Amino acid sequence: MLSSFKDLVVWQKSMDLAVQIYSLCKKLPIDEQFGISTQMKRSVVSISSNIAEGFKRGGPKEFRQFLIIAQGSAAELESQILLCQRIFQIEI
Q: What is the CA radius of gyration of the chain?
């Protein structure tokens, strides 16, 4: 039985992804510090945060809704990564 959101593999992987994105953002040009870098960090943090919040909210219906929100943040992040690849030719 899961006693904490920290036991969820999806949450653990989202935390790993956050570490990777923060590392990627350090490779972006300095003038992007408050541009796409900030947006990417917000998106990636939102993924794990929504998984954790949904887990703690209570019922499965609420948890599902927060997972859908996390999924939306993941899609947003994917779009931002693709943009970075196009603009900065960064391998991800």
A: 14
Tokens of 86: 């196009």
CB contact set of 74 (below 8 Å; sequence gap of 6+): 43, 47
The architecture in CATH of the region 5-88 reads: Up-down Bundle (1.20)
**What is the pLDDT confidence band of residue 17, given thresholds at 50, 70 and 90?**
very high
Give the domain ranges of the chain: 5-88
CA–CA dist 49, 34 (Å, integer): 21
What does the alpha-carbon distance between residue 76 and residue 41 come to, in Å, rounded to a whole number? 11
Q: pTM for the full model? A: 0.91
The full DSSP string for 5-19 is: GGG-HHHHHHHHHHH
